[in-house]
Design a protein that fits this description.
The chain is α+β, with helices and mostly antiparallel strands. The chain has 15 helices and 23 strands. The longest helix is centred in the last third of the chain and has 27 residues.
Length: 598
C-alpha cells in the first residue's frame, strides 16, 4: 500500500470511529418519562396485543367501563404524605400512589423533582392491593383521614369486614410502612389472603444503549427483581414478555421493580412472603408496529390468614421507594442491597463502592473521591504492574532484532514466527509473561467499572467547572478528548509486540480513537476514572523505565541483529535432515556504514 493509500485508509477509519457513535447514539432521556405517544397526556398505553386477562383486581377497581372510569376520576381525592426525602400522593379510589417525588435537590430532571410513579391508570398505581376472599363491589370509594404530615389512614366497610390501610413514613429515608388491619364483623370465620402490587412503565426508546452494538446499559433499563432464599432473580422486560405468563418464586424476602439507579421494593415486616410474582407486558404501538414500552407488574403475597368472627388481623409491609444507595438500602434491611446488580465480581464491586463512599465522606467531592480511589487501586496493584512493564521493557530491547526478522521474512509468516520464537528462547523471554499480571487485574477493573456505572450517588453529583453531573456525559467532551490524547501517548510508550507493522499502527491510532469516541457518550465519572488510570499508568511506566535504565537493563544501542543460515554441518533433526538454526550475529563495520548511508 502506497503512503497516500495508507493515509486515506487511516483517515476513513478515523472518520468512521467518530461518526458512527455520534449519529447512532439516541438522545438520553429522563428516567421517569412515559411512552412517546402518551408523554404529553401523561398516560400509560394500553397493551400492545391482546392477552389473557389478569385475575388480579385491585381493591376499588372492578374493571369498570371508560365512562365509569371518568366518573370515578372526578371523585378522586389525593392525600399527601411528606418527609425530608420524598413527597407522596395517595388516591382514595384504591389507596394507590399517584405520585412519589424525591425532594433532594440532586434528584431533579429539568428543574422538576424526579417522580418514581411512572403509571397513571388506577389499576396500575403502585402499592395497590388485593384481598382474596373479599368482594369490594364495582366502585368503592375509601374514606380517608390525614393523621399527620407523614401519616394517612384509609377505611372501607363492606362484605362483613372493616378494612383499614394506614400509610406512615419509616425511620429511614425512602421508607413507607403500610399497615393493613382486617376486622371480621360477620358471624363466621373468614380466610383472607393479602397481596400487594407495584407497577413500573418504561419506554423502549429510553432503554436503548447509549452506544449501539456495545453492552453499555442505559440508566433507564429496567428489570423485575425478587430474592427468594439466597437467590436473587433478575428479569428484564423482554425476557418476561417472552415467558407470556407470570414467574412466581416461593419464600420471597423482597420483590422490586427497578432501573439502574432507582427502585420500588416491597418487603414483609418479618420473615418472608409466601411468594413473589413478576410479569411484564408490551404497551402501545408506534407507526412501524413496534411496542412503545413495557409495563412491569410485581406482586407479593402472604400466607392465607383465618380471621375469626369478632376478631381482627394486622399485616405490615415495607415499601422502599427511592435511589439504590447501599447505605439507605442496608438501613432498610430485608437484604434490599442485593437489588443492586454488581456483576460477576459482586463482593469486590461492593467493597470498591464502600471505599468510594468512605473517601467521599472524608473529602466531600465525588470526583476527587474517584481520583483518590483510582490512585489507591493503582498503588496496591503496582507490584503486578511493575512485573508486567518489566516484561514489556525486555520485549522493547528486542525491537531492533524483531524489525530485522520482519525485513528478512516479510513474505513468509511461518519462517517469521519460527525466527521470533527462537529469538525469545535465546533471550529467555516469555512473550506471554506480560499478559498474566493484566489477567489478574481484570476482575478489579471490571468491578471498578460496575461500581461506578451503577452508583446512584454519582447521579447529579458535581465535580468541578462544568462537570456538574458525573452520571451524565461530559457536555464539552473535554475529558474524552484528553483521555484519547493520554492513551495515544501510552500506546507510543508501550513496546510493540505485534510482528505486523500494520497491526502496530492500528493499535497506535485506532485504539485511542475508538475509546475516545465511545467515552463521548458515557458518564463523566467513568471517563474521569479512565483518565486518572491512564495518567497514573504513564507515570508508573516512566518510573519503571528509569529503574531499569539505572540497573543496566535498558535498551542497548548496538543490539544484535538476526541473521539466518542453514549449514550442512549443523545439528540435524534426523538422519539426512539438516535443522534450521537462527543465529544472532553482530554486523560488520562495513555493513553498518552501508546501512547508515542508506
Amino acid at each position: 500500500m502506497s503512503h497516500k493509500g495508507k493515509l486515506l485508509y487511516y483517515g476513513v477509519l478515523l472518520a468512521v470511529a467518530i461518526a458512527v457513535p455520534y449519529f447512532l447514539v439516541p438522545e438520553i432521556e429522563a428516567d421517569n418519562e412515559t411512552d412517546q405517544a402518551g408523554a404529553q397526556a401523561n398516560r400509560t398505553p394500553e397493551p400492545a396485543a391482546k392477552r389473557k386477562p389478569s385475575t388480579r383486581i385491585t381493591a376499588g377497581h372492578g374493571g369498570a367501563s371508560q365512562q365509569d372510569t371518568q366518573s370515578r376520576k372526578a371523585k378522586q381525592q389525593l392525600y399527601t404524605l411528606s418527609t425530608d426525602s420524598f413527597s407522596a400522593s395517595i388516591s382514595n379510589l384504591n389507596t394507590g400512589l399517584t405520585k412519589l417525588e424525591l425532594t433532594a435537590d440532586r434528584y431533579t430532571v429539568e428543574g422538576k423533582p424526579l417522580n418514581l410513579v411512572t403509571t397513571d391508570k388506577e389499576r396500575y398505581l403502585p402499592l395497590s392491593f388485593t384481598l382474596d376472599g373479599v368482594d369490594f363491589g364495582a366502585s368503592p370509594i375509601w374514606e380517608a383521614e390525614q393523621l399527620d404530615k407523614d401519616r394517612v389512614a384509609f377505611t372501607w366497610e363492606g362484605n362483613g369486614l372493616r378494612l383499614t390501610r394506614r400509610f406512615e413514613a419509616g425511620d429511614g429515608p425512602y421508607q413507607l410502612w403500610i399497615t393493613t388491619t382486617v376486622e371480621n364483623r360477620s358471624n363466621a370465620p373468614r380466610e383472607l389472603r393479602l397481596s400487594t402490587h407495584t407497577f413500573h412503565y418504561v419506554a423502549k426508546a429510553s432503554e436503548k444503549s447509549p452506544i449501539p452494538f456495545l453492552p453499555v446499559q442505559s440508566p433507564s433499563r429496567s428489570s423485575a427483581v425478587c430474592q427468594h432464599g439466597e437467590e436473587v432473580e433478575r428479569e428484564e422486560g423482554d425476557s418476561l414478555v417472552k415467558e407470556e405468563k407470570p414467574k412466581t418464586f416461593k419464600q420471597a424476602k423482597f420483590a422490586a421493580a427497578a432501573n439502574i439507579y432507582f427502585m420500588q421494593a416491597l418487603a414483609p415486616d418479618s420473615g418472608t412472603f409466601e411468594s413473589c410474582t413478576m410479569w411484564a407486558t408490551q404497551r402501545g404501538r408506534d407507526a412501524d408496529g413496534e411496542p412503545l414500552g413495557t409495563l412491569f407488574e410485581i406482586s407479593v403475597s402472604r400466607t392465607p390468614t383465618t380471621v375469626e368472627a369478632g376478631k381482627s388481623a394486622t399485616m405490615r409491609t415495607l415499601a422502599y421507594l427511592g435511589p439504590k444507595t447501599p447505605r439507605e438500602l442496608a438501613a432498610a434491611g430485608h437484604s434490599l442491597e442485593n437489588a443492586i446488580d454488581t456483576g460477576w465480581f459482586s463482593v469486590l464491586a461492593k467493597f470498591l463502592t464502600f471505599m468510594l463512599r468512605l473517601i467521599y465522606d472524608f473529602i466531600g467531592n465525588w470526583g476527587v473521591a474517584i481520583i483518590l480511589l483510582t490512585f489507591i487501586v493503582k498503588t496496591l496493584l503496582y507490584p503486578l504492574t511493575a512485573k508486567q512493564m518489566k516484561s514489556m521493557a525486555r520485549m522493547k530491547e528486542l525491537k531492533p532484532e524483531m524489525d530485522r526478522i520482519n525485513e528478512l521474512y516479510a513474505d513468509d509468516r511461518e519462517k517469521k514466527g519460527a525466527a521470533m520464537m527462537e529469538l525469545y528462547r535465546k533471550r529467555g523471554i516469555n512473550p506471554m509473561a506480560g499478559c498474566f499480571p493484566m489477567l489478574v487485574q481484570l476482575p478489579i477493573w471490571f468491578s471498578l467499572y460496575t461500581s461506578l456505572s451503577t452508583n446512584v450517588e454519582l447521579f447529579r453529583a458535581p465535580f468541578a467547572l462544568w462537570w456538574t453531573d458525573l452520571s451524565a456525559p461530559d457536555p464539552y467532551f473535554a475529558l474524552p478528548l484528553a483521555l484519547g490524547a493520554l492513551m495515544f501517548v501510552q500506546q507510543k510508550m508501550t513496546p510493540a509486540t505485534a510482528a505486523d507493522p500494520m497491526q502496530q499502527k492500528m493499535m497506535l491510532y485506532m485504539m485511542p480513537t475508538m475509546i475516545t469516541s465511545f467515552m463521548l457518550f458515557l458518564p463523566a465519572g467513568l471517563c474521569l476514572y479512565m483518565f486518572t488510570n491512564s495518567a497514573l499508568s504513564i507515570g508508573q511506566q516512566r518510573l519503571i523505565e528509569r529503574q531499569l535504565a539505572t540497573a543496566g537493563h535498558g535498551p542497548k544501542a548496538d543490539a544484535p541483529e538476526i541473521s539466518t543460515s542453514t549449514d550442512s554441518d549443523d545439528e540435524t533433526d534426523g538422519p539426512g535432515t539438516p535443522a534450521k538454526r537462527f543465529k544472532t550475529s553482530r554486523p560488520s563495520k562495513a555493513e553498518r556504514r552501508s546501512r547508515r548511508g542508506k
